[in-house]
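Limitations

Structures in this collection are predictions, not experimental determinations, and the ligand pose is part of the prediction. Treat each record accordingly. The example that follows, with glutamic acid as the small molecule, is included so readers can see exactly what is and is not provided: the inputs are given verbatim, and the output is the predicted complex.
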Amino acid sequence: MTKIRTRFAPSPTGYLHLGHAASAQAAFGFARKYGGVCLLRIEDIDKTRCKPEFERAIYEDLDWLGFDWPLPARRQSNHFKDYQGVLEILQEKNLIYRCFKTRKEILEDIARAPHGHSNVYFGPDTPLSKGAEQVLVQSKQPYAWRLSFKSCQKYLGQRYDDLSFINNSERVKINPALLGDIILARKDVGTSYHIACCHDDALQGITDIVRGTDLLETTHIHRLLQEIMDWPVPKYHHHALLMDSEGKRFAKRDNAATLRALRQTGALPENILAQIKSIG
Ligand code: GLU
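Predicted complex:
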């Protein structure tokens, strides 16, 4: 039997809070329960929002809670070339295109579409001609790389209709309404959470992904990427989110609930973990 491998993958854009502790407990606890291993991955591709002090705090806080992981932890900012490679493959397959539209123009397109779903964008009515695209590139207009939903459908054929994944032991069929032409890279960043996360899950041999239900919709997108890139498909275990006493999600700006603040006021890790269990 394959050994269970999961991961906890925080972004160092703030101090970890009780919600993260619950997620970490779910992921590290899952690995422990099945005699597997839980990796730590630092998802720091957003150079403007990620800070070294938050990354240092991640190691400290997790260590304080009693979790450990194989060293070194993968830091995504050291691997932009890998993600660039994925983008190039998608470009060669003609599955991505440059989108020069502003946010406002995209929202107008969505509003005009006959079966629009919230903010999911299903591409322009008429794709930009190669000539017009070249003019925009040469004049240094900003753009994003978007996955072409229609091209993916065509590329995968029957396989597209059969796409599904396992979530909490149940098979879930992909819901096309959740997909659309998602952004896979911005001109200045060169990758996105979707590419970096799915690439690394495949590279690191992750068998089981344990994360919050806030990322369940994202899994539909990830499943599509896995099929296109021929990456293995892990099992998913989306857990309920931990809520505060007012029934709201913990947020990074919620200073009092950060593990660091709790530690400074004398909280003990065992009490935190017990508290999470009783709320979760
Ligand atoms: N880096 C993501 C976050 O902090 C988590 C990604 C994942 O678990 O897939 O929300």
